[in-house]
Amino acid sequence: MEHVTRTDPFSFSVDPSTGIVTPHDNLIQRRLSHMNGMFMDQAAREAMLEVEDTLLYEVYEVEVPDEAGHLMVCTSITYPGKVGREYFMTKGHFHEKIQTAEIYSCLRGQGIMMMESDRGDWKAEPMTQGRAVYVPPYYAHRSINTGQEPLISLCVYPGGAGHDYATIETKGFRKLVLEKNGKPEIEDNPKWKSRI
Ligand code: PAN
Ligand code: ZN
Asked: What distance in Å separates the CA atoms of residue 168 and residue 40, rounded to the nearest whole number?
């Protein structure tokens, strides 16, 4: 794969049905085995893992300098499915520079962007084709696919923002999105730990 750090003007294409970016520099693939302790139903996850290490989501990245002034750009593709009652989702993270925001422009699918601030405030916004979500500074964010097709977004965030995964890995999100009577429902996470 071509690997360059772009500082000259350029353009790229985004296939809205697959989320594939052309050209791209990195492809991140996250599977069930990478999501240790993140889904509520551990037994359901283990039973699934015995059969297959399912691909949950992918990120196609365009490489630009990871420094202030640039805009990091990627697509995020979360596949449909559930672990127990919980929909497939991304790990979720705060930005390392917590005062940096992000835009998710949804190109395909149905889902929820779960956001939670370092003070414990939370908000769930719908993700659907043609709708964009603004993730403000100080908010962790996770995309959750509640539909039947891939949930695809184009993400843009400041260079140098960085990713803090450890906080969510250890404390979780305050709210979970679980299926109840065939529909997504927001429920308290029994394992959530306050950051304050
Ligand atoms: C997105 C995310 C992408 C994958 O590009 O990185 O959706 O989710 P996780 O990073 O939580 O695994 C973004 O928010 N970048 O900052
Ligand atoms: Zn982010």
From this structure: 13
At 82-139, the pLDDT tens digits run 999 999 999 999 999 999 999 999 999 999 999 999 999 999 999 999 999 999 999 9
Q: Is 88 in the pocket of ligand 1 (CB under 6 A)?
A: no
79: number of Cβ within 10 Å: 15
| Ligand 1 nearest-atom number relative to CA 74 | 5
Q: Is the CB of 195 under 6 A from ligand 1?
A: no
Question: How far is residue 67's CA from residue 130's CA, in Å, rounded to a whole number?
Answer: 29
DSSP 89: B
Side chain identity at 78, as an amino acid letter? T
Q: Domain map of the chain by residue range?
A: 13-188
Fold of 13-188: Jelly Rolls (2.60.120)
52-75 mean pLDDT: 97
* CA–CA distances in Å: residue 107 to residues 2, 16, 61, 145, 152: 25, 6, 16, 13, 5
Q: For a pocket test of ligand 1, which of 61, 71, 90 has the largest count of ligand atoms closer than 8 A to its C-beta?
A: 90
**Top mutation candidate among 155, 156, 173 for ligand 1, by most atoms within 8 Å of CB:** 155
